[in-house]
Design brief:
About 60% of the residues lie in helices and about 5% in strands. It is mainly alpha-helical. It has two domains: about 375 residues, no CATH class; about 240 residues, Rossmann fold, CATH 3.40.50.1110. β4, α21 and β5 form a beta-alpha-beta unit. The longest helix has 30 residues.
């Protein structure tokens, strides 16, 4: 058998410091602290993947090389490493959900607990990744997707290692390189065709762990000169820091965008294998090393902390800072009293007994998740009206015509081929108005159609799509805008166009320019301003108000975002001065108090900012566009 070439298993404090560079940006990103500076904080997870691939592969290859590798022993170590803190986090989340959720909200939560417990939460969240499945972002277990990716990788990767154990070193490197290249190529392609799958699923993330694995098996020769190691370390740190600052959620990710932080992390690890570099010394400083040591528990704790806190109210900057400090303190306690005792000899079990204990823990957590909803119903006695209201948080996209006239990333087909006949057919006997924009245009369509039956409304809408010329965006958005503005409008004489979106002040110049470009093609241009937005789903806010016996409008006002009022006033002032027909959806609903009910016990919105079918009709009637449409 050809000896396996590995870098050894000695402790590297600089890697713990690198973990600090991974976890701290993730925490800042999730808590939206320094949000305008650390825009790419989420790439910390990719750095974790590279580190994990490196460290675990060192262990696997060292055991295979010495002839002591055992799948039972491998998972004994994995269970001791991840289960104690993970199960503690599950129990804490279930307890908090018992006190803070409504019974109807436990359905998705319980499913996510079970999916996470069996390390398939990445598949679960990918399955629920439709444009309106924003409850994923408010799910306290969303962050477990990355643990599922790692565990799925380590179900398959040891089999690869065992299969190539007798290969020559170069052949082993080629096999793992081929796996990495195939995964990377698939990721680069899929990030444009199915971004959710590219983000969540292991086959599109395996290349990041494989980069670390290649380092661990000695795919690159050791660096013989310290000055070369210093340069590589500096370049690696520059790539990591640059990624944190320059990458943003608007870029396609992972794919090519994730290459920079992964190569940066790999360069730092590689440079420290045979040389003590200045960067390595910096990373080994006690504060960074300590942060790295608590990084696993901190990762588990921080996301549930902010999610559950936001169920009460949106935290201020001071409260966010306090939550971060509390998360760090809890992570330190977890390391001391949960992680280390189980990893050491404090709880001595045989490897097989550890696997059995891990299985029992998984079953126990699953049972608790399954009985959570019934237990809450039995213990808490919520007003029936409150429970009824929460049911409206269940998303009904049919009135927006998702998949035909409203395209999301899940429908990458060209708008022209998919939707023209269904959505863009003018009528000769009625005025024809095109509704164009993002989801904030799509949710208006059914209401306009109901309120103004004497008008034929056409629809061209796409998720996250600013309806302005030259804005750019995902493929399904760019394709739609190109078709509408360059082909459809010049060849069809419409009576008018209604443009709506989740507007921000930065959109105003491009919108004015777009109006100038298209006004010769249409009879009139109508701009619908931003709608009311809340910090959490409106049905949940109203259910809490009912439960607490609070006036619903006044209670909801506490959770209303102020930015939309400012944006609405800016758009109104600018566009009206330019002679554009501007309709304020915000003032239509808020004059002065914001309406929260579209009908008896039917909320205006089904989430934080999108209208229910009834809410769309309510707004359309109240806006009273008759004078503009008939002019």
């Amino acid at each position: 058998m050809t000896p396996l070439k590995t870098r050894g298993t000695s402790y590297r404090p600089d890697i713990d410091g690198l973990r600090a560079f991974a976890i701290l940006p993730v925490v800042l990103f999730h808590f939206k602290i320094f949000a305008d500076t650390v825009t790419g904080g989420f790439v910390g997870v990719d750095i974790f993947f590279v580190i994990s691939g490196y460290l675990i592969t060192r262990i696997i290859f060292a055991d295979v090389s010495s002839g002591t590798y055992s799948i039972v022993k491998f998972y004994d170590r994995r269970i001791r490493r991840i289960f104690p803190a993970l199960v503690s986090m599950y129990l804490a989340c279930i307890a908090l959900a018992f006190f803070l959720y409504f019974p109807t909200e436990t359905v998705t939560f319980s499913k996510s607990v079970i999916a996470s417990t069996f390390f398939v939460s990445n598949i679960f969240f990918d399955y629920r990744s439709g444009y309106f499945e924003r409850d994923s972002e408010t799910n306290p277990l969303l962050h477990t997707w990355s643990l599922s990716v790692e565990e799925q990788f380590y179900v398959l990767f040891p089999l690869v290692v065992f299969a190539i154990r007798n290969f020559r070193h170069r052949a082993r490197v080629l096999v793992i390189s081929a796996i990495a290249l195939a995964s990377f190529t698939a990721s680069v392609y899929t990030v444009y065709t199915n971004p959710s799958a590219a983000f969540y699923l292991v086959q599109f993330r395996a290349w990041e762990l494989a980069i670390g694995a290649l380092l661990a098996i000695g795919a690159l020769p050791l660096i013989s000169h310290r000055w070369i190691a210093e340069l590589i370390a500096i370049a690696g740190l520059a790539l990591v820091c640059g990624s944190l600052i320059l990458i943003s959620p608007t870029l396609p990710f992972p794919g090519l965008t994730a290459l920079a932080p992964c190569l940066g992390a790999a360069a730092i690890i590689y440079s420290g294998e045979s040389n003590q570099t200045l960067i390595g010394g910096l990373l080994a400083l006690p504060p960074l090393q300590f942060t790295g040591l608590i990084s696993y528990s901190l990762y588990l704790i921080h996301w549930p902390a902010i999610v559950f806190f936001r169920l009460i109210h949106e935290p201020s900057r001071l409260e966010k800072s306090t939550l971060v400090a509390a998360s760090i303190a809890l992570a330190a306690l977890s390391l001391r009293f949960i992680e280390r005792p189980f990893r050491g000899k404090s709880y001595s079990l045989s490897p097989r007994a550890t696997l059995i204990a891990g299985g029992i823990a998984m079953v126990g957590v699953t049972i608790l998740a399954l009985i959570l909803g019934p237990a809450m119903t039995a213990v808490w006695h919520y007003p029936p009206r409150a429970i009824d209201v929460t049911s409206y948080a269940k998303i009904d996209e049919s009135h927006m015509r998702t998949g035909t006239c409203f395209l999301t990333a899940g429908y990458p087909d060209a708008f022209e081929s998919r939707s023209q006949a269904a959505c863009l057919t003018p009528r000769s006997d009625l005025p024809n108005y095109l509704v164009i924009g993002d989801s904030h245009a799509a949710h208006l369509f059914s209401g306009l159609q109901t309120a103004y039956p004497s008008v034929n409304f056409l629809q061209a809408t796409a998720s996250g799509c600013r309806p302005v010329i030259g804005e750019g965006g995902e493929a399904h958005c760019e394709g739609m805008l190109h078709f509408i503005y360059d082909k459809f409008l010049p060849s069809h004489k419409l009576d008018g166009i209604i443009i709506s979106a989740q507007w921000a002040p930065r959109d105003l110049p491009a919108l004015v320019a777009t109006i100038g470009e298209i006004k010769s093609y249409v009879g009139k241009v109508i701009i619908i301003g931003p709608s009311v937005q809340y910090v959490q789903a409106l049905p949940r806010i109203l259910a809490r108000a009912i439960t607490l016996g609070q006036p619903e409008k006044a209670f909801a006002a506490r959770y209303r975002r102020p930015e939309e009022a400012t944006t609405d006033q800016l758009f109104a002032t600018t566009l009206q001065a330019a002679g554009v027909d501007y309709v304020s959806a915000y003032k239509t609903l808020c004059d002065p108090d914001c309406d929260v009910w579209a009908d008896t016990d039917v909320p205006v919105q089904f989430d934080d900012d999108h209208f229910t079918r009834q809410g769309s009709a309510y707004l359309a009637k109240k806006m009273d566009l008759s004078a503009i449409l008939s002019r």
